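Subject: design request, 173 residues
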């Protein structure tokens, strides 16, 4: 079988900050508009009674940040009602949020969208199961490899950013 689809969204966000001494004083206003488009397809089959597979690919297109491809695959081996195994692989990502990528208030936060990339993860999983005389057993093992994790850090000295008693932060990987 083949499955395919698409999705499209247009987003409007706004991050703000107010002065702590005078809560009515707006010190930062970061509106952002962006579009996300996703295209995906999946192919699955069972060429033999004991063998099945699934493979897929998703493409995500972001108007402001990084575009990504996310492949997925699975292999199924089984003798139904007796035993089986499956091997799974997947890749995923998370682009920085609007706040992480674009918010800047001139004192405590500095935007640096050019240096940010999506967080990524690769996942591998193996599962085996068996049934016999009313007893069911399942064993599973997995491995995740996450990279480019986004975090807030102290900004390097920058004369364009006012240094207050709070440390200036910027988001990096």
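Subject: RE: design request

Done. Sequence follows.
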């Amino acid at each position: 079988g083949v499955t395919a689809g698409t999705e499209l969204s247009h987003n409007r966000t706004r991050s703000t900050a107010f002065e702590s001494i005078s809560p009515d004083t707006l010190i930062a206003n970061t509106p952002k508009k962006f579009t996300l488009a996703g295209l995906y397809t999946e192919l699955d089959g069972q060429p033999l009674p004991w063998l099945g597979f699934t493979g897929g690919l998703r493409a995500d297109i972001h108007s402001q940040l990084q575009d990504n491809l996310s492949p997925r695959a699975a292999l199924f081996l089984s003798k139904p009602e007796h035993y089986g195994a499956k091997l799974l692989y997947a890749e995923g990502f998370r682009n920085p949020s609007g706040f992480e990528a674009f918010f800047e208030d001139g004192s405590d936060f500095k935007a640096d969208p050019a240096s940010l990339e999506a967080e990524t993860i690769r996942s591998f999983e193996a599962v085996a199961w068996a049934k016999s005389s009313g007893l069911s057993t399942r064993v599973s093992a997995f491995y995740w490899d996450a990279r480019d994790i986004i975090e807030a850090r102290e900004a390097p000295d920058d004369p364009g950013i006012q240094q207050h008693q709070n440390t200036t932060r910027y988001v990096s990987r």
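Residues 161-170 have pLDDT under 50 and may be disordered.
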